[in-house]
Amino acid sequence: MSEIIVKAEKLCKTYHLFAEEIKAVDRVDLEIEKGEYVSLMGPSGSGKTTLLDLIGCLDSVSSGRLEILGSDVSSMPESRLIDVRRGRIGFIFQDFSLIPSLTALENIQLTQYFAKMGREKTDSAKLLGRVGLGNRMNHLPKQMSGGEKQRVAIARALATNPSFLLADEPTGQLDSETSKEIIEVFRELNEEDGLTIILATHDLNLGNQIPRKICLRDGKVAE
After folding, report:
1. pLDDT digits 0-9 by tens, 135-144
2. What ranges make up the beta strands (E) of 69-131?
3. What rounded mean pLDDT belongs to the chain?
């Protein structure tokens, strides 16, 4: 039987702006199995990032039920959500989010330090080699191209041996050729390592390269 990594039932996230109620995620039903490679697709404002934040335990659920790695996180306090996401979920962002004063190697090592990893941590240099940056480990972010910075961000996300990766518009700041290279890295991680990856994008060309597509519109899963 396949292991369910993410299970959402009538999942909602509502924001209030003065008297207006905004349903960023509206009664979403969803299951994602271990080993899947999934794209969340839709235009800006469709709810992709909000749904990704809920799955990553970066935001709280307004109503409905959400299970992550077998745990019901729907009403968990922030103190427990930290434990769920730390070391179990890898995050990759559009703006790379690297610390500019640290080298590629140090950015990864710092992540492992905050995750309080001991002997079980993966060698940081090997992680950089895994994403094709074995010769750039001592470079600062300002000495790297956008594609190289995103590869460091991917290696950093892998540093805690996560159960799955979440990538929010990971090619949003990259040119088309570099975007293809980054998507190839994700493909290899999924096919060769069996890593579950959930990637949000508004780019139809990119999203259509991914085996499973979930389209969002106005916070709902579209047909």
Report:
1. 999 999 999 9
2. 71-72, 89-92
3. 91
State the amino acid at position 195 in one-letter form.
L
The answer to whether residues 71 and 79 touch, using CB atoms and an 8 Å cutoff, is no
Q: Render pLDDT for 186-213 as a digit per residue (tens, 0 to 9).
A: 999 999 999 999 999 988 888 888 999 9
Dihedrals phi, psi of 94, to nearest 5 degrees: -60, -40
Per-residue pLDDT at 78: 85
Helix, coil or strand: residue 48: helix
Per DSSP bridges, beta strands 71-72 and 89-92 are unpaired
Q: What is the pTM (predicted TM-score) of this model? A: 0.92
State the Cα–Cα distance between residues 123 and 214, nearest whole angstrom.
Answer: 34
CB proximity list for 106: less than 8 A, separation 6 or greater: 99
Q: What share of the chain is helix, strand, coil (3-state, %, to 5)?
A: 30, 30, 40
* Nearest residue to 161 via CA among 211, 98, 108: 108
Closest of 156, 59, 149, 73 to residue 114, by C-alpha: 156
CB 83 within 8 A of CB 34: no
In a 13 Å sphere around the CA of 142, the CA atoms on its Cβ side amount to 3
What count of residues does the chain have?
223
The pLDDT score that the predictor gives to residue 206 is 87
Structure tokens at 113: 């330090």
The rounded distance, in Å, linking the Cα atoms of 139 and 188 is 25
3-class DSSP state for residue 190?
Answer: helix
CA distances from 149 to 15, 108, 128, 140, 174 (A): 33, 12, 11, 9, 10
